[in-house]
Amino acid sequence: MSDAPASQGNSAETRLIEGRSCGTCHVCCVSLTIEDPELKKVQGYRCPHLKPGEGCSIYEARPGTCRTFHCGWRQLKWVRDSLRPDRSGVLVQLAGEIGSDGTKHLGVAITLLTRAALKADGLAETVAAAVNARVPVFLNIPGPPGYTSARAKLNAHLEPAVAAKDKSAVLAVLDKAQRQGRRGKFRRIVFSDKPGGEGSATLESR
Asked: Is 130 in contact with 107 (CB distance < 8 Å)?
């Protein structure tokens, strides 16, 4: 159903892909929780520096977290070109996992930002490519704005559908996991100060 990604030790191999740029996409400025000494915001809320129609108002002086972050669409060639986050409603991020032998593997976490995202062109093929390469695949399910997210590893659930090259079955697994995850318990994210002046995110029960 798709070409397998290059991998190293069952990990995603990354580099910035030529020809792919953020452009007018600002999904990360809204969908992610950012905890940086210079900027703290919770997921689901627009960054205060993001101006509609203009982009980042502090781009040249943006925090280090923002400078170094790149979504999976920008780093992973096997993520289909059609999956630019603002156009597809699909956000792919790198996600680490520690194996039973203590080895760290680099996988991907997929967030479906809209209901229509499940129908995004190239989504099933991208997921299948990762599963075929034994790259860890997680589904990230955001809570309400300002709350934590749920995350589930789906490789074992996806493998039969991928082996059968059944695109509909791959999407059905994602849909089921998304619906089940939304019924979970989320906690509100609160930033607090630690001794020494460093901020940290704490969680409150919903």
From this structure: yes
